[in-house]
Design a protein that fits this description.
CATH topology of one domain: Methane Monooxygenase Hydroxylase, Chain G, domain 1
Strand content: under 5%
Shape: flat
Structural class: mainly alpha
Order of helices and strands: HHHHHHHHHHHHHHH
Distance between the termini: 110 Å
Largest sheet: none
Helix content: over 70%
Length: about 425
């Protein structure tokens, strides 16, 4: 045995491995060590899981291991993150990054609500939030263009909310099984819309110099008024059907207030109508002057043409040429389609204030007779007439301003442009 060991030792000293074999085995060994290290690193998450598991009760671990447990954890993560975003978006304003999150959270809140009455109230609450946003924008935003853009967004959303509130109330009026709940909701909505209109009126006073903002806020005011009227219609419907006992005195008081507000709007728009009529009459006068000048010029041309028709020796050289049109023909052509349309607009503007005032008078008469439904319908008719009259009259005034800008402003603009051109030319010369 000792001889064998001695021979092996001698053999080890005499036999040496080839260099390429050593290199190959070394590389193989290094690669195996590296792969084991990577596996250990990738198992960090698993080690963390085992550590967490050691501190958690067995029942919890079994629940989490199930599919329902996984879904629960995922839902908690998603909704937890969502709640953080919703809370952060509460103070956002139109145009802000989180504003869409705010609107979406409101829609979700409505979607989770079953009661139609409660949905209507929520939409009115959101409309009130839009008014709060408008007030904030007017305070914090100094750039007029930014104010206009953001308030336009808020007003558009307000109108959507109020339309949905109206739809919900009308649906509840026809299908609800709880009439007392519908009336209580309608009374609350009427109260809230009155508060919203008070705020809008204050904002209108603040922005009265800005036509764009004034127009947007007037649209918001009209939408709020319509919603308030629908709320009153719900109360009247349930009262007259006998489903709910309501004080008629209280109802008459509410309707009287609506009629009085509508009458004020008629008076306000009548002033706008007067301005529009003045514009139309001014333009008619200018057109008449231009027509008279055109006729005189044509008469002069005709006279000169008639004299040139004869040669110096008195012979007619005109041949079979047709002479110029007569003055009567020219006057006929002046009555163009555009003038007819202008006259129609003028008649419309002159007639609508009287129609709106008559509707108010009828509403008061019907109310005194106890016909609540007809009274509110006449009041709504007056509101529609006022809306149409206001739109037509304002368009006439705006078109006139665009076509005939004030002379002073035009002169100032030309002077400014000339001054800028002179300064630019001076700079170029110096260079």
């Amino acid at each position: 045995m000792s001889d064998i060991i001695k021979q092996l030792k001698d053999l080890r000293q005499d036999v040496k491995p080839r260099d390429e074999w050593v290199t190959h085995k070394r590389d193989l060994l290094v690669s195996q060590i590296s792969s084991q290290t990577t596996q250990k690193k990738s198992s960090y998450a698993m080690n963390s899981w085992y550590l967490t598991k050691s501190f958690m009760p067995g029942g919890v671990m079994k629940f989490v291991a199930r599919p329902v447990g996984v879904l629960t954890l995922l839902a908690l993560f998603v909704f937890g993150s969502g709640m953080l975003s919703v809370n952060a978006s509460k103070g956002s304003l139109p145009g802000d990054f989180l504003y869409p999150v705010k609107l979406t959270s409101e829609k979700v809140k409505v979607g989770l609500t079953v009661s139609k009455e409660r949905k209507a109230e929520l939409h009115v609450d959101f409309a009130g939030e839009r008014v709060n946003e408008i007030e904030t924008v007017l305070v914090v935003e100094k750039e007029v263009s930014e104010q206009e853009q953001k308030i336009k967004i808020a007003v558009d959303e307000l109108k959507k909310d109020l339309q949905k509130a109206q739809d919900s109330m009308e649906e509840s009026m026809n299908t609800t099984d709880d009439s007392e709940k519908a009336v209580a909701s309608a009374m609350e909505i009427d109260k809230k819309t009155e508060e919203i209109n008070v705020k809008i009126a204050l904002n209108l006073e603040e922005v009265k110099e800005n036509k764009e903002l004034t127009k947007d806020l007037e649209e918001a005011e009209l939408a709020t008024t319509k919603t308030s009227v629908v709320a009153v219609e719900v109360m009247i419907d349930k009262h007259e059907s006998g489903e709910v006992e309501l004080s008629e005195v209280e109802l008459v008081e509410v309707i009287t207030k609506k009629i009085d507000n509508a009458e004020k709007k008629v008076q306000e728009v009548s002033e706008t109508a007067k301005s529009a009529i003045e514009v139309i009459e001014k333009n008619e006068l200018l057109d008449q002057i231009a027509e008279d000048e055109a006729i005189e010029e044509q008469e002069l041309v005709d006279s000169e043409a008639a004299e040139s028709e004869f040669s110096e020796d008195g012979e007619d050289v005109s041949g079979d040429e047709v002479g110029s049109e007569s003055v009567a023909d020219l006057e006929t052509e002046v009555a163009t389609a555009e003038e007819v349309a202008d006259q129609q607009i003028k008649d419309d503007i002159e007639d609508k204030p009287e129609e709106a005032e008559q509707a108010i008078t009828d509403a008061k008469e019907l109310l005194s007779q106890g016909d609540l439904t007809s009274a509110i319908e006449k009041m709504k008719e007056s509101t529609v007439l006022v809306e149409e009259l206001k739109e037509t009259a304002e368009k006439v005034v705006e078109d006139d301003i665009l076509e005939n800008p004030p002379v002073e402003e035009t002169i100032v603009e030309e002077e400014v442009e000339a001054q800028e051109d002179d300064e630019e030319e001076l700079i170029n010369n110096e260079e």
